[in-house]
Amino acid sequence: MSVVPMHPEATADPQAVRWVIPAGTLPVVGEIADAPDDLGKMLHSEDVASIEVETQAVVIRLADGRSWSGTGARVRDALSAALQHPQRWRPAAEVTEDDMLRAALQDVLDGSVGDYIRSHGGEVTIVSAQDRHAEVRMAGTCTHCPAAGFTLHSRLESELRARFPGLVELRATEEPGKAARRTWLTLRRRNA
User: Fold this and answer.
1) According to the 3-state scheme, what is the secondary structure of 9-68?
2) What is the dihedral sign for C-alpha 41, 46, 48, 52?
3) Is residue 80 helix, strand or coil?
4) Closest Cα to residue 59, out of 28, 92, 18?
5) Can you count the helices (H) and strands (E) in the chain?
6) Which residues contact 162 (CB under 8 A, 6 or more apart)?
7) Rounded to whole angstroms, how far apart are CA atoms 71 and 108?
8) Contact, 67 vs 46, CB < 8 A?
9) Per-residue pLDDT tens for 93-143?
10) What pTM, to 2 d.p., does this model score?
């Protein structure tokens, strides 16, 4: 088996590290009850407090009293080996395909695509994620924006497909009853 690429990212919690992995590496999301081999042993010992899988990362939180400088190399090696056995990861709760789609969509909205949308005064929230179909609600400056369709398909949908290749459709609705807000650029054009 080939090695799964991964790299660590710091989090706000000094006991937790987010290990970024390729989308679709693990068929689960959420809190993990058991992991393969040494990583599972570490989870059930006094080394690792929790493991949570995201669509493109594994967040490992060390137990109190443990440090990354002392335990990090063992955790890295155990995670690398455990990623070779994706079907042996056991979530704390049942995970459905709809859960995987919702998690992938939330991951995209929490990441750089969501940052881009928010930087322009827009807002996108999840309406539904089921049967390989996702629906989002666009609000704020996204409402009636001529570029909203481009953002939806070129940015949001392409990132979502990278995390959830089985996506059939992504559609958007606008926030009901809200008129489009003028942006600084719109006001500037009218006054020019």
Assistant:
1) EECCCCCEEEEECCCCCCCCCEEEEECCHHHHHHHCCCCEEEEEEECCEEEEEECCCCCH
2) positive
3) helix
4) 18
5) 7, 9
6) 23
7) 31
8) no
9) 888 899 989 988 998 998 889 999 999 899 999 999 999 999 999 898 888
10) 0.69
